[in-house]
Amino acid sequence: MEHITLLLGIVIVTALVFDFTNGFHDTANAMATTISTGALKPKTAVAMSAVLNLVGAFLSVEVATTISGGLINEEGIRTEVIFAALVGAILWNLLTWLLGLPSSSSHALFGGLIGAAVMSAGWSSVNGSTVITKVLIPAVAAPLVAGLAAMLATRLTYRISRQAGEKATSKGYRAGQITSAGLVSLAHGTNDAQKTMRIITLALNTSGVRAPGSNPPLWVIVSAGIAIALGTYLGGWRIIRTMGKGLTDLAPPQGFASQTSAATVILASSHLGFSLSTTQSCSGAVMGSGLGRKGGVVRWSTATRMFIAWGLTLPAAGLVGAGAEFLTQQGTWGIVLTGALLIAGSGVIWTLSRRQPVTVDNVNDEPEPAGVITTAVAAVSPPPAGTATTTAAEDLKTTIPGPDVEPARPATV
Question: CA 228 to CA 213: how far, in whole Å?
Answer without folding.
Answer: 24
